[in-house]
Amino acid sequence: MNMVYAALFRPEDDGGFSxxxxxxxxxxxxxxxxxxxxEMATEVLGLFLSTxxxxxxxxxxxxxxxxxxxxxxxxxxxxxxxTPFREKK
Length: 89
Hints:
Elements: E1 3-11, E2 17-20, E3 28-31, H1 34-54, E4 74-80, H2 83-88
């Protein structure tokens, strides 16, 4: 079951990116370049959602990307199936 959330990518001075998910407090990561940042965003989203599901913690549904502020960065959707992350635990 794929889940899709908007991720906020902010460029860093060193050429990397910081990543946060506006709908998921505490879900963040970083990457050395854009490809690495997308990989890390996918991994952290899968881990974060699987943890919430395992602990039966309610979480906010995704906000449409057009309703979010890019805050000096850019927004894109990240899609992940949290099932494999749950199975690894």
